[in-house]
C-alpha cells in the first residue's frame, strides 16, 4: 500500500509540474515598443523622401552629396537614438542587429553618394535594400504588438 501511495504522489507531482510549466511562458524577445515603431517608421519616411528627391534630381547639380548632408546627419542621429533605445530594452538583440545593419547601410550609401550617383538605375537596388531593412523591423514590431513571438 505504501508503494501505491508513493506512486500516486509521484504521479501528482508530475501532473503539477506539467501544469505549472504549461502556465508559464518564457519571453525570449522584448515586448512591442511603440516608440521604436514610430522612430523606425519616421526614419523610413525620411529615407523614402531622400530616394524620391535623388530620383527627381539625378544628373543635376542639386543631386550632389553636398546638398544631402543634412539628410545623412539627421538619419545618423535618428539611428543612433534608435540603437541606444534598443539596447536599453531587455531581450532586444534582434532589433539591435537590424539597427546596426541600417547604420552600416546608411554609411555605405553616404560613401557612394560622395563618389557620385550617376543614374536612376543605381538608385533602385539601394532603395529596395533600405525598404527591406526597414520593413523587417516594422514587421517584427507589428508581430510583437499582436503578441506573437
What does this structure look like?
- By secondary structure, this protein is mostly helical.
- The chain contains five helices and no strands.
- It has helices at residues 2-23, 34-57, 69-88, 93-115, 120-145.
- The longest helix has 26 residues, at 120-145.
- The radius of gyration is 25 Å and the shape is elongated.
- The chain starts with a helix and ends with a helix.
- The model has no long low-confidence stretch (mean pLDDT 87).
Quick take:
The protein is an all-alpha fold and 149 residues long.
Compute the CA-based radius of gyration: 25 Å
- Which class do the helix and strand fractions yield? mainly alpha
Q: Name the shape in a single word.
A: elongated
Helix content: over 70%
Helix/strand order, N-terminal first? HHHHH
**Spans of at least 5 consecutive residues with low confidence:** none
Number of helices: 5
Mean pLDDT, to the nearest integer, reads 87
Percent strand: under 5%
What gap, in angstroms, lies between the N and C termini? 47 Å
| Structure summary, number of beta strands | 0
Largest sheet data: none
Keywords:
149 residues, mainly alpha, 5 helices
What layout of secondary structure does this protein have?
Blueprint (H helix, E strand, L loop, with lengths): L1 H22 L10 H24 L11 H20 L4 H23 L4 H26 L4
Amino acid at each position: 500500500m505504501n508503494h501505491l501511495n508513493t506512486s500516486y504522489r509521484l504521479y501528482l507531482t508530475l501532473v503539477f509540474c506539467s501544469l505549472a510549466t504549461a502556465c508559464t511562458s518564457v519571453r525570449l524577445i522584448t515586448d512591442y515598443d511603440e516608440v521604436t515603431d514610430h522612430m523606425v517608421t519616421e526614419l523610413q519616411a525620411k529615407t523614402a523622401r531622400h530616394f524620391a528627391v535623388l530620383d527627381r534630381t539625378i544628373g543635376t547639380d542639386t543631386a550632389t552629396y553636398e546638398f544631402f548632408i543634412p539628410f545623412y546627419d539627421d538619419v545618423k542621429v535618428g539611428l543612433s537614438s534608435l540603437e541606444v533605445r534598443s539596447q536599453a530594452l531587455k531581450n532586444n538583440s534582434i532589433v539591435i542587429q537590424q539597427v546596426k545593419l541600417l547604420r552600416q547601410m546608411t554609411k555605405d550609401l553616404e560613401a557612394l553618394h560622395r563618389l557620385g550617383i550617376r543614374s536612376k538605375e543605381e538608385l533602385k537596388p539601394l532603395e529596395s535594400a533600405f525598404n527591406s531593412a526597414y520593413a523587417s523591423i516594422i514587421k517584427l514590431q507589428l508581430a510583437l504588438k499582436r503578441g506573437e513571438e
